[in-house]
Fold each of these.
Amino acid sequence: MYRNLSIKQKQIVWAWGFLAIPILFYVIIRFYPTGNAMVISFQDWNLLGSRTWAGWENYAKLWNDPVFWKVFANTFLYLIIGTPVSLVISFVVAYHLDKLRFMHGFLRMLYFLPFMTSAVAMAWVWRWFYQPVPIGLFNNFLADFGIPQIEFLRSTTNALPAVLAPAVWAGLGFQIIIFMAGLRAIPRSYYEAARIDGVSTWTVLWEITLPLLRPTIVFIVVFSSIGFLRIFDHVFNMTTNDPGGPLNSTKPLVLMIYQSAFTDFDMGYAAAQTVVLFLVLLAVSLLQLWLLRDR
Amino acid sequence: MRSNYSSYWVNAITTKAEGEKYDAAVKFMQYVTSDEAMQIWLDVVGELPAKPSVGLTEENANNEVFGPFIKGLAYANTTKFVNESAQRQILVDMVERVNLAGADPAESLAEAAAAEQALLDEFYASN
């Protein structure tokens, strides 16, 4: 049969033969579990016993669970604090680093270093930073200047920003690299024209640099939003003795999913939360793409 | 009221064991729960025996190292956990509500009791 095909057709067969491998891989590794999670969200399952249909029970439980709403709010706090803060810092750093010639490569390496560091190691080092006096770096520093102690992790209000800080820092290096690539891609001629016209630095920034960086900004906003919406490792490692605590004040949705699934063994409930997270990620990504679209 | 905490191990034979393996397992269980084996376990490993006939002998109860622990078993209770980490979390939250959120201790305790009861009810309803 293969012998009777024309060269053109044979090429198509081979192309599909190669393409089938990643497609198959994705179907088995990604799409099948996603579909399965959606099915499990309508079932009761403890990982070992039989699966029984539960209807909308898991979603009703979610709706009536005060912890879920707290966690939902936390997840959005990570997003709405983390994304703008990291965007502004990374842009400011990239903007100035771009103009710098002295030790440019070394500084860029320093900013990129946290991105390559394991989140677990980083979280534990920051956890040490946040300890009270005589141990913690920050509180020791405050004490040297006679400033009152700050409860970083053992506080329901300070814990979330304290956990977020290393997460922002960790992502900064990557965003700076992307921003610098974006800045380099802006044609020099625009800046030369602006200089001939005698335009101020601020106007150049607002009218040339930022509008032309739009695709870069869209990419970084979407990318970092997704990252903050599924934050887990920093939170889990900085609050291991009361995961997501104190009093659920740092618990993100992914940590709640993890606990429902692997400490409560309530797979149906965990799957329902996963479906909610999936819908939130989808909605946020689509919203951002729409808000930052090319007009 | 006098109360003490203790936990225990449970050994069992799987439902899939058959024939020779099953007989051997029964024999092993009979041995491991015998007075003789429990005394060895206490002397060599240092874990307290489960049977009063071994634990509360004159010699063991007056041992200067583990004697007090053995005497404590007479009024010890074991908490049955249905979900150990969730039950621990309820207790942690109870203390944190008082320490960090300024809640009234009695109210926080009542809230923890209600949460614990809800957890137990949910477990026994489905198991």
Note: The radius of gyration of chain A is 24 Å.
Amino acid sequence: MASNEIPADVQSLIGFTRSITDAVTARDIRHFAQAIGDDDPLYSDEQHGLTTRYGSMIAPPLFGQTFAFADLPVAEMPPDLSPSEADVPVPAERTVGGSSEYEFFQPIRPGDVITRTSELKSVTKKVGSSGDLYLVLVETRFVNQDGVLVAREEATYVKK
Amino acid sequence: MSRSDLLDTEVGASIGELQVPVDTVHIFMFSAITWNRHLIHYDLNQANAEGHQSVVAQRGLLGNYFARLVIGWLAGRGEMTRLGWKVVRSAVPGDTLVCRGSVVAVDGGQVDVALEMVNDAGVVATGTASVRIDTGDGGAAAWSRARHGTDLRPPPSTA
């Protein structure tokens, strides 16, 4: 295998998708806002939301992260419990989050029903100073109950 | 700063600063709400075995700090339409993260900003974001309707 080649069993996974649909609750939004340390009442107070430009409580921009990882049983996850979205059979022992690119099209609100679909877009091998790296690119699309794309992410995981 | 001031912003202008202490409580809460069970975020032995000095803050959590900085600067005068960031160094409990940004491009009602997050050791993450600022000339309303299906601009001031 040349230095920049990806094993065939990995290439065969390109295009693999996984979808799940869940409802958004005000409680989830409050918990997310608390986790990111954001005390904006827009993310916690439904009455306050009514007075804002949005006309309701909304979620912080990156709230889609709550849907980003598959809720598989632990037994079906990699040994280090890293995101299954980046679980491709390359010769690497560690996984770290590398980068994200989000586009935002519409706020997420309590009561929305979001279908999240992730797709393995590519696996790229790089030769780094400390050995080979594998960049795993995953696209995640977040679509609401009206069929509207509310956000899209391209995340790159680094496996080394 | 008013909306019109924001429209007059110049390349190189600062968008302010956000300081965030990193602690295990928020790392735990973020893993819980995102169902991120990766061991390096809560298992110290595993984190050490992988070369980290402690459990590490999630890439996603760091992105939210950039989002908070941009949204705070925008202060309801428009919408953030894009945010990208790259982690170059681990952030661990005990760190104080300083997030800063500056304007790199202004094109009508769109402003692009460059972002940087540092701790005592150096740069933790870099990023970029784009925002669409209300122009007050109807353009933002049309954009908002097209993008959101409704006009999300604030009602006209009655003051």
Note: Chain A touches chain B through 43 residues (CB under 8 Å).
